[in-house]
Every structure is written in C-alpha cells, then in structure tokens.
Design goal:
Layout: E1 3-5, E2 11-12, E3 26-28, H1 87-97, H2 102-107, H3 110-122, H4 128-140
Antiparallel strand pairs: 1-2, 1-3
Length: 154
C-alpha cells in the first residue's frame, strides 16, 4: 500500500520510510475513492511546481490521461508522416518520364503536368527536356515541396 507524506502530500512506495521530497516520515495512505485517478506506482510524485531531489526516480509523464508515454531513444529515427512524397521517386520519375509530367502528377501539380504533356507533343519531344531538368532539380534539392507545401522525404 502506498505511503503518503504528511508534510508535502507526495505518494511513495512501501520501501520508502522518509519522503524523498522533504525528508518527513511517511504514513500509510488512505485508499483512493472509487473512480478517482490513481498515481503511477513505483516512483514518488512531487507536488505541482516542485522538482524531485537529485537521484530520485521521476515518474513518466503522460501527455494526455489514458495515453501511454512514448519515448524517443537515441539513434531511433524520428517519426515521418507516411503521406509525404518521396524525393527520390519523384526525381526518377522526372528523369525517365519527364516529358509526360508523371513526376508532377505524383507531386500533385496536375495542371503543370498536363502543360508538360502538351509541350512535349507540340515540340515533337524536345519539350521533354523540361521534365528531365525538373527531375535533376528534385534530386539535387532545388524542388523541396509537393503541391500542398509539404516537404519531400528522402
């Protein structure tokens, strides 16, 4: 059963005899009322606005009640939005199918892609250099966003 500090109101595990916040002796805490939130077990909970002393275990912080606490570990890649368009794919589409505007269809620039198709047919294929050059620009990083303004992922 958790113990509660008379002095600062912190809840501690059974293995603590004194409060890690203020050093006062602990007494057994009363059972929580039905439906009341239960503090996390295993670590002392400092009162609002106070910092636990050096070396004291710190309970995990939950961003929203009922949500699990997620932690970013060193070396772990950051979360990326799965709807972001690939820079490499857009660049390759521009190099291979640039005259048909496929890379612009992929990135969401549909009117620009239709204009590229028309220019390619009117110029008997010479206008396809436009799409080829855009493919190089995408791969080099000159074109960094899609039609919605979201950045291209690597």
């Amino acid at each position: 059963m958790p113990k509660m500090c008379k002095n600062c109101g912190s809840l501690m595990d059974d293995n603590f005899s004194n409060c890690t916040n203020c050093g006062a002796p602990l007494e057994a805490a009363a059972a929580p009322a039905p439906g009341a939130p239960v503090p996390p077990q295993g670590a002392p909970v400092p009162p609002q606005g106070q910092v636990p002393p050096q070396g004291a275990p710190v309970p995990p912080q939950q961003p929203y009640p009922g949500q699990p606490a997620y932690q970013q570990y060193p070396g772990q890649p950051m979360y990326q939005d799965p709807t972001l368009k690939s820079k490499v794919l857009a660049g390759i589409l521009g190099l291979v199918f640039g005259g048909f505007g496929v890379h612009n269809f992929y990135l969401g620039y549909t009117s620009k892609a239709v204009i590229q198709i028309v220019v390619t047919f009117v110029t008997c294929g010479i206008g396809s250099l436009w799409g080829f050059i855009e493919g190089i620009m995408i791969l080099c990083g000159s074109i960094k966003t899609d039609a919605q303004g979201r950045p291209l992922r690597d």
